Every structure is written in structure tokens, then in C-alpha cells.
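Entry 14. Structure prediction run on the chain below.
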Amino acid sequence: MSGKRAPGGKVPEAPLRPSSTPMTADEFQQETGVSRETMARLELYGRLLKKWQRAINLVAAGTMADLWRRHFFDSAQLLALAPVSRRPWLDLGSGAGFPGLVLAILGAPDMHLVESDGRKCAFLSEAARTTGSRVTLHRCRVEALPPITADVISARALAPLADLLRLSAPFADGETVALFPKGQDVEKELTEASKSWSIPIERLASRSDASGVILRVKGFSRA
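Output returned:
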């Protein structure tokens, strides 16, 4: 696919080695090549997330100790897998902003965050303001989203693949690229989705999780 890019111009290569120790901010910067200014914005984001996490469950508590790898790097790796966007990037079920808000901080343009939970929307609004991120926040279910045709659609830990394709279809055309990080149930999800969908798909190794994959889909349609 033409037009690929990565934070700081670095293109992902092999997956990172599995590690029992958390990724540090310095290691994140080395892997992504982002600027000091971008790192400062991510650090603000991380501090705000930790503060709000005490009051509401934004992410799984066990992942906070490895924030830079489990959330920031896991999100950042998607930027190199997307085309250069001229139309909106639609992030479904944004939750605490992963991957959408991280990608906006890294330079993805015209980012639309879709989240129905009011408390999470309040966090996203404050995080976008604090980090100086230009995003469009939609407080609604995906099914209630106004008509948008997206260049890129992403979703992390939102739904099984068949449901993601159903939710994405109204916002996609033949040029739309969907990026869906998946875990150990990916084969089961692919089998189930293939019953209803024709899925031109690439499986790409996740660089943040040795057992994970990223599904890159373009031109999917009802079977």
C-alpha cells in the first residue's frame, strides 16, 4: 500500500521482543522517533489518565504499570499501517483514547473519536484539551453516528471482527482501510466473519504484543 508513514518517519519492522519489564518513555521514543514536543504531550496524557483512573475505570488496572507499551506504543504502531488520510480517520469505541487520541497526538489528521460512555467522553475532552489535540468527539453509539466516509477506521477491544465490519460498513468505501488489533481469538473471529463477509485481509504482527496481530482490511463487502 502506498503512502505509508510512521511516527518520526520510522517504519515498523520486526515485533519487539517479549518483555517482563514495562516499556519506558525513552524506549518508546527510540522505537517511534517522535519529537520531544510529542513526548511531552504524551506524558501529559499519561499523567491525566493516571489521575482519572483513580475515579473511573478507563483501562484495565493491570495495564497501567506498562502504559507506554500496552497503550501508547500499541496505538502508535497503527500510524505506519494507514494511508495518508485526506478524509476523516474514524476511531470506533475510543474509550480512554486508544488508539485514536494517541494517533492524533502523533499527527493523524481529522481524527474522529466515537464513544458513547459519558464519563469516558468527559475524559477524552479534557485529554484533548490538555494535550492540544484537534479531534472531533462524537458522544454516541456507532450506529447513531452521522454519515461520514472515512479513509481509515480503527477499533481496539471493541467487538469481534464480524461486528466491527458491520459497524464499519456504513462509513467505508472501496478505498477505506480498516485497522483492527486482535489477540489470541483472531482465528475464531476470522472464521466467523468469513461466513457473512468477503474480507481482503492482511495479518500483520503486533510490535507491542508478541501474541497479537493487526488486521488490515480494505474493500470488504457482504459475502
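Residues 36-53 form the longest helix (18 residues).
Filed with the rest of this week's runs.
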